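#structure-requests
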Amino acid sequence: MTKYLISFDEGTMVFPMADLPAVAEATHRVLRAAKAAGVWVFGGGLLEPSTGALVDTDGTVHDPATRPGKETFIGGFAIVDVATRDDALHWAARFAESCRCQQEVREFLDDPES
C-alpha cells in the first residue's frame, strides 16, 4: 500500500455559505466511505494561513503573510493508504465532487524511518 496526500488550495472552495452544511455532509460521507474501505489515514481542514507561522532554520518565527511568492495555501487535506495511484485518483475525484473544488494528488516518499 502507498500513502497519498489529497489536498486543495485555500480559496478554491467557492460556493454560497448557505451551501456549507450540504458540502460538509457530502464530504463527511466520502470520509466515512474511505474509513469503511480501510484506506483513510488522517485528514482535515486547516485554519486561515494568518493563524500559522513560518519557522526558519535558526528558529526565527515569521508571520506566514510575509512569505514572498506564496499566493496559495492548503485549505484541507486527506491522507489515504491505497494499492495504486488510480485508487488515489478515485478518492480524489470523490472528494473533488463533495468539496466542489479541484484536488491535488501527491504520493508520499517511501521513508522507512517515518
